Sequence to fold (349 residues):
Amino acid sequence: MNHLVENFYTQQSHVFELLALMFRLNNHEYLNEGTPEGRENNELNEYITYSRAVLSKETKEELDCFFHNDSFFGLTLSQLILEHNKADDIQAFIEFLEDLPVKQMMSSFIKSGYSFPEDTPNMDDRDAVFNFIKSSMLPFNEQAKLLYLYVDEEKTKARFIRLIKEINEAFYEPSMDKIAEVQERSINKLSSMDGDQIRGLLQRNFSQMEVPKEKFNKVILIPSYYYQHASLFTYGDEADTVMTLFGTETLDAPDDSNEEDIIDLVAALSDPTKFNIIKALNIAPRYGFELAQQLNVSGPTISHHISKLSKLGLIRATRKGNKIYFKSNREKIERTLAEMSAILTKREE
Fold:
């Protein structure tokens, strides 16, 4: 791990890149939604099309199980990987998984989705785990899947490790050197940036996450070729450490809004549930489950709306102590309405 400036660090990671590849294999179209116009990677598109064509039906189903875009169970291990220094060597990571107590793996899986104020339940208490999962913000289908994975936990662990090995050997290892070169170029770019520039990059990549004035203990930036224009944020409260897996293309991504972006933003503001979420968050930051209770809607429903508002940057997650809350992004809302007004009232020259 290399120190950049202030509390910012960077690290090259084959393990996180492998997980990013697995997520992309199952969610290529979803990840491409945030790609700026004219900047799609045709070489990567062709590679994913080819890779999917040679994957077996069983492997595709396993990828959808562990790397679904609503639950991303495989990526919930991020903080464990960092805590145990298993981010670099894939074989060491696999051996770590093989030795990892199954309850510890499952305790990461059940934290998928939004953060909760409750502590992780006793993993030996089946009723407590079931209630924890059912009260989560995961969609119903993913809750049901997670319950099944928990009940058959030993098989779950074996399935996950087998999937890691298969994708690594068949797809990641052959391209490892090429991927490493892309990662190194991104790290070199990061190394030339000052603290304000890095904060700007984080704010652009994570419009839903407010980069606070008070510092996290450590912010680790890990470049990922397979994430391209997308990014992942994970926070470990015990070490007060943020990890961002950011697409290598985000370093050069434009930050300009176009009319389609403005229309999407205004459409979100026009939706009654999203409108009420923003009104509630204007009063005070809240957890997702608090919003669901206040607005009398289900967890999966509030999860869907929060996800959309976060992606658009209309709400942000913010830290209070070691807890993550949501609050409205008033500046973004005001700017959106002003830009829409300018578009609608523009006169022909």
About this structure: Residues 259-345 form a domain with the Arc Repressor Mutant, subunit A fold (CATH 1.10.10.10). The two ends are 55 Å apart (CA to CA).
